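We close this part of the discussion by returning to an individual protein. The encoding preserves chain order, so positions in sequence and tokens coincide. The sequence in question and its structure tokens are set out directly beneath this paragraph:

===
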Amino acid sequence: MEERPYRSASGAPIALRRRQHSASCRELAVRCPRLQLRSLSAVTSAVWLAAYALFVLSENSMVLSAAIFITLIGLIIYLHFVKIDQESLLVIGSLGIQVTSSYASGKESTTFIEMGQVKDVVINEAIHMQKVVYYLCILLQDPGDPQGVSEVVPLFQSSKPRLDCLIEVYKSCQEILEQRKTGLQSS
């Protein structure tokens, strides 16, 4: 297992961890920076100071209770549904591709795509706010048209790695897809 540091599209530090289980099975995980206590404390303090100012003006203690309640609920929602610590891609040549997102709360979201549905894995580009942004995606084969694409599944949407990291993941995926194609052609 090797881990290399990279940067996200926004410049935040991320890490790519590669683990090769066998010749046709690789796991690639992009780890995002953890939630910083400093930023969490700053947001909480700002909300509570604003609530205290409203309390002083209105002399209603419900303002303080509501601020505490909203802050706690907001933090739980953020940790459980928004903040992703790690996104991983498990590519098994004979079986399929598993995409997993691990949230800060410990919740995991997993999607599995059978290898028979995978047409290709590509690096795509998009223009966003006068910037070119690259992203990795899986092209799913159209069941009605073998040459067509039915769906595009973007990967690493939360971590948004830069092109150098995406190329590394792309090469690993392509090696396994090529092994699968040569295996199918020989049989």
